[in-house]
Amino acid sequence: MYYIGFDIGSSSIKVALVDSVTGKSLAVVQEPENEMSMLALKNGWAEQKPEEWWLHSCNAIKKLLKNCNVNSSEISGIGISYQMHGLVLVDRDGKSLRPSIIWCDSRAVQIGKDAFAAIGNDICNTRLLNSPSNFTASKLKWVKDNEPEIYNQVYKFMLPGDYLAYRFSNVINTTISGLSEGIMWDFEKDTLADILLNHYGIDQNKVPEIVPTFGLQSRVDKKGAEESGLAIGTPIFYRAGDQPNNALSLNVFNPGEVAATGGTSGVVYAVTESLSVKESARVNNFAHVNYVKGAAPRIGKLLCINGAGIQYRWLLNNLAVASYDEMNNLASEIEVGSDGVAIIPFGNGAERMLNNEDVGTRLVNVNLNNHTKSHLCRAALEGIAFSFIYGMEIMEEDGITINVMRAGNDNLFRSAIFSTTIATVMNCVIEIYNTTGAIGAARAAGLHQGDFEKFGSYITDNDYVMTYKPEKNTNAYRKAYQNWKKELELILNK
After folding, report:
1. Which pTM was predicted?
2. What is the CATH number of domain 2-245?
């Protein structure tokens, strides 16, 4: 028997099939092969048609089952991961009323700022653990204010993963973790955040029924089966946003465990049981996948770094080099600290962890007689690593303990310089695993049985690549970081 997992991104839908006994991945397919379209009717807007997520998911299922020679009756559970913070609106017939306002749409920024000021910093930090910011609730308020004719037809609002589950089952529901990512969960009262919904004038009847993150959420019905190719009655056992799901995929469930990604942008996601919040303007706080009402809290603290891998890719495109491997080899020729050369990598827009300052990318301390592209490659890797460390220091000030970091086997974390720099300065080990969100979601379908130890063995047995440990001689790394940090703070303090 097998579990099937979905990862609804804004670029594509990925679907994975795993063995339900061993957790081994059989295959992952992507639809469409090229990127999905995105609507941007105005600057700062970003929308997608939820019907396209369903279409591509159905196509991917049929391709996956055919490629693996698996019958739909052999699928014993479904897990769903999805792009966070999106808004889907449906009427009483389940028809979507407008394109989804997705995660990178910024139209509701001012609405969130105004709500934060009106409700108050202390109340938002204590009860919501966040500023309302540009999250799902604020996007729904935008629709209420600007498209009242649509808002008045809304039967329920959903997140992208809720919509996919609905199309399978004709049942509308959501999770506490999902509501928290929309800033619609009151952690102090452990209930729906009426304080924000009432402030926005949002009818609470439009909130879907709440179901557990792990457990029987719904089953594929006749129509869902006919369209998708899965069997009638196939259970949906799991649903979570992409960043909590990425942490789950890396076996990150407990305080002291941290998940990280190092793609175009970077993400650090740390688990804590503390409800104390000091940095809600720079760090987001969500109910993690194993948050259970009435139990010791499990909070995922999420820090994003816009200027990460995009900076290294820019160097690849503009230096006389052929590959990342060549750049990594050039960087390894240079000692820790890059002989004083420093690169501030924040060139991909405003950085939330820098209080939304847009400091750009800066290259400093270059001696044109002595320094080469090898120094630039080393300084770039160190600069991106230092940006992660700077963010992790903010998280530590917010109560996070970092014992182990787990990361996917992506370009940045494959670099020994990048990973060793973080491990040494932060004094933690970094474990690398070769997995994906779709595979994690498929495996998580088995967690309805509650066997987290077995789930962890799926990851260590099937996905483990290597571990980076801190260097014993930390002085050079710490000195290099302090030099880089000084250059950053000179920019920030101007």
Report:
1. 0.94
2. 3.30.420.40
